Amino acid sequence: MPDELGQHRAALTELLLSIADDKLMLGHRNADWTGLAPILEEDIAFSALAQDDIAHAGALFDLLADWNDDDANRLAFGRQPDEYRCAALVTLSDEFDWAVALVRQFCCDHFDQLRLARLAASSLQPLADLAARMAREEALGVGHADQWIVRLSGATAEARQRVESALRIVLPLTPGLFEEPAGVAELEACGLYPGSTDQMHGQWCEMVSNVLEHAGLPATLPPRSGEAGGRRGRHPAEFPGLLDEMCEVYRSEPQAQW
Amino acid sequence: MGLSSKRTGIPTYEHPDRLSDNPEGDLRAYEVFVQTERGKPHTHCGSVDAADDAMALQFAREHYGRDQACVQVWVCPRDAMIRTDYDKDLVFRLTDQSYRFAKGYNVGAKWREFRAQRDYEDYRKEDIKEHF
Amino acid sequence: MSVSAGDNIKLDWERQEDPQRLAAFEARIDAGELVEADDWMPQNYRVGMLRMAEHHANSEIVGALPEGEWITRAPSLKRKLALIAKVQDEVGHGQMLYRVSQDLGKPRDAMLRDLCTGRTKYHNVFNYPAPTWADVAMIQWLVDGAAIMNQKSLADGSYGPYVRTMRRINMEEAFHFKSGEDMVLTLMSGTPRQRRDTQAAFDRWWMPCLMFFGPPDKDSTKTSPFMTWRIKTLTNDTLRQRFVDRFAPAAIDLGLEIKTKQRDASGAIVSDDLVPDELIVHDEASGHYGFTQPDWDEFNRVIRGNGPLNRERVGLRRFSYEQGAWVRRAVLGQTCGLPLAN
Q1: Is C336 on the interface with B (CB under 8 A)?
Q2: CATH no. of C26-324
Q3: Which of A105, A137, B80, C186 has the fewest C-beta atoms lying within 10 Å of its C-beta?
Q4: pLDDT given at position C69
Q5: In Å, how far is B6's CA from the nearest CA of chain C?
Q6: For residues B63 and B59, what is the distance between their CA atoms, to the nearest angstrom?
Q7: pLDDT (tens digit, 9 = 90+) per residue, A162-220?
Q8: C255-277 b/e with 16+ CB inside 10 Å = b?
Q9: pLDDT at B1
Q10: B124 domain residue, yes or no
Q11: A155 to chain C: nearest residue by CA?
C-alpha cells in the first residue's frame, strides 16, 4: 500500500473487501445458473455477467493482497465467516427461481455502479483507474437487468407476478447494501472515496424506481437502516454453509496448488 | 457440504417420458456478424434465437462477442435477409468472364513483344545509318 | 399435444430419391464441396445429419452438468472463472448445434423436450459421476481430448453449417483441453492426496473415454451411406486408436497407471476391480499402442438408461426446462418494443 495511505489502510481495506466480497458472492450465486438458465442464449449472457463479478472481485483481492502482503485466493477462500464483509442480499439463495436471481442482480448491479463511480473519482489514481474500467463492464450488467425487468413485467401476467414476488423477497434486503464499512467517513473526508452513502442511496432509489415505474411495477423502496450486518461480519444463518460449499476443495489442503 | 442446493433435491418424476405442459415453439432466428477490429470487414459468425431485436443484440454480444476481441456486433432477423437460391439463381456468369479480371490480360508477353519490336526498330535504324 | 415434432423425422432406406439430383449431390460431395442448409439433399442425409447434430447438441447441454456441479466449489479464483467460462462454452456449443439442427427441420423446443423425456440420447460419458475436483481436471483433459479428436474429424465432413460450427467449437475446445492439461499437471505435481485423487479420477474416466467413440466397427461401417456422404469421416475404431496413441503415452509420462477390468483366461470380465492393462505397450511395427477393450456390456447398460447417473442428469435437465418455462412463455412471440440499447 502506498506510504501516504498508511493511516487509512484499515478503512480502505474494509471498503475494498466489502466491494470484492459482494462481487465474489453475487458472482458465485449467479454462476450456479450456468447450464441451467431458462433460455440457452440467456444462460450464456447471465454466466458472462457472473464472470465479470468474480473477475472484479479478483482484481480487488489482487490489489489488497499486494498492499497487505496477502494472497488473493486466501482472501477469497481462506477466511472465517465473520471476516467476510458482504451484504446479506448477495448471498440470498434464489431457490431455482430466475426472477429472484434477476431482481437480486438488478438491485446489486445498480448499487455497484454507484459504488464504482465513487471509487473512480478517488484521489488514489491506480484505484480510480481500476474502478473506471470495472464501471464500464458493470454497465453491461445494469443494462441486462433493466431490459429483463421491463420485458418480463410487460409480458404475461404470470411473469409479472414472478417479478413482483421476487421484489417482495429482495427489496427488504437492500438496506444491507448501504450499511457503511467501518471507517468509510475518513475515506470520504480525505477524497479517497468521494461522495456519501446518503447521496448514493438517493441516487440508487431514483434509478431503481425509474426502471420499476417504466415496468409498471411501483414499489416502495425501504429506507436505510442502522443495523449492523454483513459489513461488520454479521451474516445470515445460512452463510457458513454457503462458505463450506464454496471453500470445500480449497480448505481440504490450503497449502496446495490447484 | 457437497452439491449446490440448486443441483440437489430434483423431483423424481412419476412420468419420466412425458411433460405435462404443451410444446412452446421457437423464438425468431437472427444472424450475427462481428467486426474484430475497426477497419476490418464484419463477418458472419453464427445465429441466435431471440424474441426481438434488443434481445438478439444482447444475446449476440455475450455469445459471439466475448471469446474473441471484438469491436462491433451486428444482428439481423434472418427472414429480413433477401438471398438468392443456390439451384435456381445464377449468380456468376457461365460464359468467359476473363475480360473483367486482371489475369485476363497477359501484358507480360505483350511487353516482351513490344520491347523486342522496339529493339529491332532501333537496330534497323542504326543499320540503315551505318550502311547507307 | 404430447407428440414432438421429432417423431416424423425418421431414416427411411426404402425411400426413392430423384436419381439425377442424388447423382449431382453425391458428385458434389465427392468433389469435396460443402452442402448448405437450403441445398437439395437426400432425406436420409438430412435425417442423419440432424440426428448427429442433435445428439451432439444434447451432449453439450448435458455435458455442462457434471462440471457445472463444481463451479460453486472451484478452489481458486482463476479455476473458478475458467470453469464457468468452460461450462458457458458448452452451453454455447449446444446453442450453435441446436441452431444447425433447427435449420435441418426440428424446432429447438421439440429437441429440448425430447431430451428431457428420454426420447433422444446424449453421450454416455456424461452419465458417470464426478465425485472429486480431480474429476473436473480429468474431464477437461481426457474427455475433452476425446471430444477434440472426434470433432476434428467431423470438421472434415460435408455439411457446411455443421463443419463451420465444428471449427469454431474446436478453437474453444483447445482452451478447455489446455486448461485441463494444466490442472492435471498441477495435481500430479502436488500433494500425495492430490496425486491419489488424480489416479482415482483417471481410473473412472479412462474406460468411459474408450467407449466415447462408440461400439467397435462392424464390417459394414466403412461403406455406410453416412461415410460415403461424409457425415462421418472416420470410423469409431480409428478414432479410438488415435485417442489411445495420444493419451496413453501422456498418462504414462504423468505417472498415471492405465487400468482395465479384471478378466479370466478366456478374456471374460470377472470383476469390476481394476488391474493394470498389460496391453498398453507401444508396438514399433504398427506405430500404435495396444489397449484392452472397455466393457461393452456396461456400455449397453448405460446407453439403455441404466448408467450410474442417467436419471439424475435427465432429471436436472428437465427440472431446469420446467423452471424456466414461464420465462420462455413470457417472451415467445413478444414484441415488447424495447428501444435498442446502445
Answers
A1: yes
A2: 1.20.1260.10
A3: B80
A4: 95
A5: 9
A6: 6
A7: 999 999 999 999 999 999 999 999 999 999 999 999 999 999 999 999 999 999 998 89
A8: ebebbbbeeeeeeebeeeebeeb
A9: 44
A10: yes
A11: C330
Q: Domain with B104 in it: what CATH number? A: 3.10.20.520
pLDDT level of residue B5 (50, 70, 90 thresholds): confident
Query: What are the grid coordinates assigned to C126, written together?
Result: 456424461
Which domains, from first to last, does chain A contain? 8-252 (1.20.1260.10)
Mean pLDDT of the region C146-174: 95
Q: What Å distances lie between residue A105 and A62, A101, A250, B58, C269, CA to CA?
A: 24, 6, 27, 16, 54
The SS3 call for residue A253 is coil
For residue B94, the distance in angstroms to the closest alpha carbon of chain C comes to 18
CB proximity A132 to C under 8 Å: no
Residue B105 belongs to domain spanning:
26-81+90-131
Average predicted confidence (pLDDT) for chain A? 96
C residues 172-201 closer than 8 Å to B (CB): 172
A38·C325 Cβ contact <8 A? yes
Residue C7 has pLDDT above 70, yes or no: no
The continuous run of DSSP H or E covering B31 comes out as: strand B28-35
Q: Average pLDDT, whole number, for chain C?
A: 92
Neighbours of A149 (CB within 10 A): 24
Which of A39, A42, A47 is most worth mutating to test chain C (most C CB atoms within 10 A of its CB)? Answer: A47
H or E segment and range at residue B44: strand B43-50
For chain C, state the CA radius of gyration. Answer: 21
- Tell me the chain A residues in contact with residue B48 when contact means C-beta distances shorter than 8 Å: 41
> A168 at the B interface (CB within 8 A)?
no
A44 touches chain B (CB under 8 A): yes
Asked whether the beta carbons of residue A155 and residue C81 sit closer than 8 angstroms, the reply is no
**ipTM confidence:** 0.97
Q: How close is the nearest chain B Cα to the Cα of C342, in Å?
A: 10
pLDDT score of C8? 63
